[in-house]
Design a protein that fits this description.
Blueprint lengths: L1 H16 L2 H12 L2 E3 L2 H7 L2 E4 L1 E16 L5 E4 L5 E6 L6 E2 L4 E6 L1 H32 L5 H27 L15 E5 L4 E6 L6 E2 L6 E4 L5 E7 H4 L7 E5 L5 E9 L8 E8 L11 E17 L4 E3 L2 E9 L2 E6 L2 E5 L2 E4 L7 E5 L1 H9 L6
Antiparallel strand pairs: 1-19, 2-22, 3-12, 3-16, 4-11, 5-7, 5-10, 6-9, 7-8, 9-11, 12-15, 13-14, 13-16, 14-15, 16-21, 17-18, 18-19, 20-21
Helix pairs in contact: 4-5
Pfam families: BSH_CzcB (PF25973), CzcB_C (PF25975)
Organism: Chitinophaga oryziterrae
Protein name: Efflux RND transporter periplasmic adaptor subunit
Length: about 375
């Protein structure tokens, strides 16, 4: 009798263990990508079914770049002749106008240059008078041709010397025509070559600057443009005039148009695309980072309503109808979206898909297929 009881216990134990695979099988069903609904469940969930349609949609190319200005709008200010900085009242960010005095420099060589010019000018007047006199004598054959040629050579050489000294004076903003012995100055002024803003100040009062030193940097923001980096596979789809929607870090939206496409690919397999803003905004500054979306030409693509696409664990899916009340969740790659539709880049079969309330199916599937 005791042996019978032990045998019955062993049989019961094995019978209990054999029920566990059923639990595992049930979990496998829950984790599958298919789900079945009753007609009542489909009606209450508002499930809509139709085929994917071919639509005309413009593709959006997402890129990024920086605000920049053309090279001709950036000016490095230096002085052709060295000198000591006497006065300067500039700070980065200050606005300046073209012709405005930026700084004053002093140096003995400025005095020497003005002196050389005035002496050369006086000597030229003497040589010109002598040349006129010798020319008349030569025409009357009262002097030798050799003497006349020497006077003429001295006169022509002095004109060259005076002209070169005058050009050197203009380099330091001194007008030769206004210079005389009563207004010789030991200082010169540096004027702003453009209107704009000061971006760099590299000197201080009392410092000696040489011709190779950059004293200030100015920028003219009137021709701001957006320089975008576009990979080589996308450059072929771009052309001047295409619309660009760009966003600054403050999420402010701006519009622009492609103006110029650099016709070469750099070592990073990308090219630069220059865009002009439709409207200037003083809040836009050179060096500012921006995200941009370029609207490409219309294309015939497979598209579904945005409600048909669901996301799960960083992947995108749609549901195919596999029969009455039966649906299969399939991963797809999506593209651009427009007017409530989203492009499906993945090749999909010509089947009915769930186009409305697809998330209801996803929630029911991931909740274990239990009835709501």
């Amino acid at each position: 009798m005791r042996n019978i009881i032990i045998t019955a216990g062993i049989i019961c134990l094995f019978s209990c263990k054999e029920k566990k695979p059923a639990t595992t099988e049930q979990q496998t069903v829950v984790q599958t990508n298919t789900i079945e609904l009753t007609p009542e469940q489909m009606k209450s969930a508002g499930i809509k079914i139709e085929k994917a349609a071919t639509r005309d949609m413009h593709t959006i190319l997402k890129v990024n770049g920086m605000i920049d200005v053309p090279p001709q709008n950036i000016v490095s200010v230096s002085i052709p002749l060295g000198g000591y900085l006497k006065s300067m009242r500039l700070l980065p960010g200050m606005q300046v106008s073209k012709g405005q005095v930026l700084a004053i420099l002093e140096d003995p060589q400025y005095i020497q240059l003005q002196q050389d010019y005035l002496v050369a000018k006086s000597r030229l007047a003497y040589l010109e008078s002598d040349y006129t006199r010798q020319k008349g004598l030569n025409e009357a054959q009262a002097n030798s041709d050799k003497l006349f040629q020497q006077v003429k050579s001295d006169f022509e050489s002095q004109k060259v010397i005076l002209r070169s000294l005058g050009e050197r004076l203009q380099l330091i903003s001194i007008s030769p025509d206004k210079l005389n012995e009563s207004n010789i100055s030991r200082s010169i002024s540096i004027h702003a070559p453009i209107s704009g803003f000061v971006t760099k100040v590299n000197v201080n009062i009392g410092k000696y600057v040489s011709p190779t030193d950059v004293l200030f940097e100015l920028i003219d923001p009137s021709d701001l443009h957006l320089s975008l980096t576009v990979f080589e596979k996308d450059v072929i789809n771009l052309e001047p005039g295409q619309k660009v929607i760009c966003y600054a870090n403050n999420n402010e939206k701006y519009t622009a148009r492609i103006h110029l496409i650099t016709r070469n690919i750099n070592e990073n397999h990308s090219s630069e695309v220059h865009c002009h803003f439709d409207k200037y905004d003083k809040r836009l500054l050179p060096g500012m980072f921006m995200n941009a979306e370029i609207e490409l030409n219309n294309a015939h693509v497979k598209a579904v309503p945005e409600e048909a696409v669901v996301k799960w664990e960083n992947k995108t899916y749609i549901f195919f109808a596999e029969g009455t009340g039966k649906f299969e969740m399939t991963p797809v790659e999506t593209g651009s979206s427009n007017d409530g539709y989203i492009e499906i880049k993945t090749a999909i079969p010509d089947k009915d898909i769930v186009t409305g309330n697809a998330y209801a199916l996803l929630m029911k599937m991931k909740n274990g297929g239990e009835d709501e």
